[in-house]
Amino acid sequence: MNLNTKLEERKCENCESLIHNYLSKCEACNHATSPPNVYACSSEENIKELKERFNSTMKEAYNDDKLELVDLVDKELKDKVAVVVSMPPIILRNLVNNPSQIYSNYEKLVEGRLRTPANPEDDSKRGEVGSIIFGSYAREITYGILSHNEEGLPTYGHAFCKLKDITVKHRTTFMENNSYKVHNEQLLSKKIPLGLTSDWNHKEYLVLNKLYKYIKTNESVDEILVNTFQTDGLDRSNDNFIEAHIYGGFTKNSINSMKLHHNADRDDRRDFELAQHSMQG
Amino acid sequence: MNAFLSNSTGILIFQTKEKCEYFDVYKNSRIDSHVAESRLVFSKEEIELNYSNEEEILSIASREFWISECASLIQEVLGGLPPRLEKNTFLKIESILESNSEIDDKVLNHLLIAPLSDEINISDKSHNAIILNLFSTASILDKLRELQPLLLRMVENWLSITIKDHYNLLDKSVVWKKLVFEMDFEKILTASSKVKYERLLNSLLFEFPNARQRILVKKYLDRLIELRFPDYKVQDLRVEDLVESEKKSVEQDAVNVYETIKSVEKQINTIISLVEQGKDDNAKKYLNELVEMQTSYPDGIEYALKSLCNIAKKSADLMREDFEAFALRKAFELPKVDQWTFIQYSDHLKRLGKYDEALDYLEKARELGEVTILESLRADIYANLGEYEQALEIYEEINDDDFVIDNSKADIYRKINKFDEAEKIYQVIQNDLEGRAFSSNDIDTLTRAYVGLAEVKKLKGDLIRAKYYYEEALKFEFKNPSSYIAYSFGYCQVLKLNEEFEEAYRIVDSIIQKYPFVEQAQYVRASILGLIRNEIEGLENLSQLSSEKSTWDNWLKNYLSGVLLLKLDRFSESKDKLIDISPEDLNSSDKDNTLRLGAALWYIANDEFDEASNYLQFVNTSKNRMIEYLGYVMQLHIAKKKNDTALCNKIIWEMKEKVVIDKNINRIIDLFNQNRFDEAILEEADALLKLAA
Fold first, then answer.
1. A131 exposed, middle or buried (CB, 10 Å; 0-12, 13-18, 19+)?
2. Tens of pLDDT, residues B414-428
3. Facing B85 at nearest CB: one of A87, A117, A274
4. Which helix (H) or strand (E) holds B681?
5. Is B37–A126 a contact, with Cβ atoms under 8 angstroms apart?
6. Max Cα distance, chain B (Å)
7. A127, B43: Cβ pair inside 8 Å?
8. pLDDT tens digits, one per residue of B376-407
9. Which residue among B15, B39, B92 sits closest to A115, beta carbon to beta carbon?
10. Residue closest to B223 by CA, chosen among B158, B280, B299, B169
11. Which of A180, A218, A279, B14 is deepest in the core (most CB within 10 A)?
12. Are A124 and B33 a contacting pair at CB < 8 A?
């Protein structure tokens, strides 16, 4: 079920050597190329399928007399959506206090540090799902969501960091559901079905494909956008969102804005304010 | 077995025989692998820990995390924060230091990794911590400040050392970190003799199991000793010797100041211990000696003030307001008084019910600068004066995300009978802290919210739940005995209202055994003795209290004596105690309304109904439900005695709207209906005993 299965190897723009589809630079000349997740999601066949799904959504909208509303939602989305990463405020505080601190993926950090657990059932779910979807570069992926309101999933922490587009757009891809859901639903498939992922430039297609079922003619655009992601703030299995996969980590300088969840406790509020203070300084 | 702790996220991963376990040390909760992994996001900051069982690893990890977190928060404060955020951060630091025993030295070591910038004014930060009564935090900051010259010298020496490491055996920074974090670095810095310095430094060698590394480290250490004590090796350079000797003398001064701080800490603890035992003469003698010693140094007045305020605070914590007053008066004898002394004295006067004087001293403190605590104290004084709207207005203006302020606001809502608003705030605090209150600040906040809820339930007439919340509050171990004692008195009042006199007596008696010098406990016991028809013993108890020592204006002593005498029909003696001030000269505080009720009852007992009504007309405006209801009962008493049926009906009608808190009060009305007025007087007196103490 790997994103990159069956993709052809690329040729390096600099030296024309073959670059394996899970690499982000040429091994022969070290010339950088697009990250493997972006390579996979922007493949012609994936984008074609994504657009076909989008076209059928538009046809449905035409038949349901919702085309105008869909158009309005689309315009709003272009202005508002961004990648948001949720984390506990103490982590945010430590991230912004040290400009060289990089927020990155767990697997990269513990690689080789902990012995494999005795019971495979206790193995890391995220590691497991990540490696199935991304293969050997799973440890390079940082997870976020696509959000319309600068908020993220409180189930992962009460501080939400909206990342600057410029720092992530060339290395981020999106998946219509979270990787666990996709993994569980597509267990028997060897590859993630085409059209369920997108690169940065086609993310609105993905959102509208997902959002359409929530579009009701008597609702405002803002009310519709609320469905971009859903969470009860308590149980992760109830989270419904478009998952963002950022190749590599990010630093304090990647952050555009920060928000705190309304249910944050006193310690979280203080840590968040310290982070805010540090950002302003 | 090995475990893996991320100090900046608080995530701990460790393996048991069966599986991997994940723990969030920061929130003190077990978490699943998914959440743990999503939070392990920083590289190269994790530490490996060795352990033999789960309990051990949780304890080791928790200690390591809080040391690092505490140092990190102190650095945040030193970097400069807005006042409100600085205060909240200070509170957290203090709570970490209190709930993790003996981590102070380790936290200090973390802060000694490098000298602080000259621009950071550590003294100001320490002063701010003291203003908030956060003495553990202030102590670390003071030590940090005192150690800066020594640290700077050490770092200069360290940086000047160059040892060739041909085999790349060891990074120099690793040796430095081990030296600072693993050794008793504070002692190394302050070691004044060459032998001690050498011994302490050489213990670092044990941290390096590799023999070749040890040889290299020894070279670094020898050079350090050489630089600090030039006679460690024969030196040819005489000029350098002179410079060294000069620097050494500066260092020696710093060491002396540092040692003085330690000695003062010990002296203060001795004084407080004597105060606790009631050995006031010795305590006063030592206090005078301490002040004399401190003021003999240049700039010593500042230190003497700090010591006196510290002693005053600790005395107040023991409910020894008399010794608190002594220490504060001593502070005012010094040639210069700082803002905190004014604030502390104002707070002291407030607790004694001397509100006007308290406001005067508050203004004196304000002349020396604006700090948030001035406003919260002002609000508190107004609340005590019964001027709740004004108090609430001030609290709203403070706009501080602080549970202490929230509790104060809720207390006012409770006092003005806006119970839903009060309960909502208390419950937010309860939800936030229940199961998570480990530090004394958090315990104080949570228990205060429990007590607030208990009082709300009491005022709603739900004594069962009131008892429950008091019991929840009293389950905690209090660092500050004054809270425990005050809440026990509140609990006793609920027990008295529920006619559980024996249990109330047992509790107050245990407090007297433990804290024999707590004046209020004697009052509570006297009131219970009166309730169990043992008025004579109650009076004897009260008469044994020294008037000279009392800081309470004697009002409660007089009042309770007056009520007990009234119950014994000793009217003329009782009059002296109960009728002191005319009703117009009293304010709207609960204390003054209680005084009015006492005077009114005396006049009723002597059939002087017009005088009694005169006092009662003010009571009707009280926001305190117990006072208000008892006021109605006494008015009904007068109306019954006057056979004024219309007035009786009117009062009864109005009383129907009110909640009955004192279970015994309906019995009084039955006695009125049976014209058994003499017995009713006794019951009304009992109601006053329950109300006052």
1. middle
2. 988 899 999 999 999
3. A274
4. helix B677-692
5. yes
6. 111
7. no
8. 889 989 988 888 889 988 888 886 667 888 99
9. B15
10. B158
11. B14
12. yes
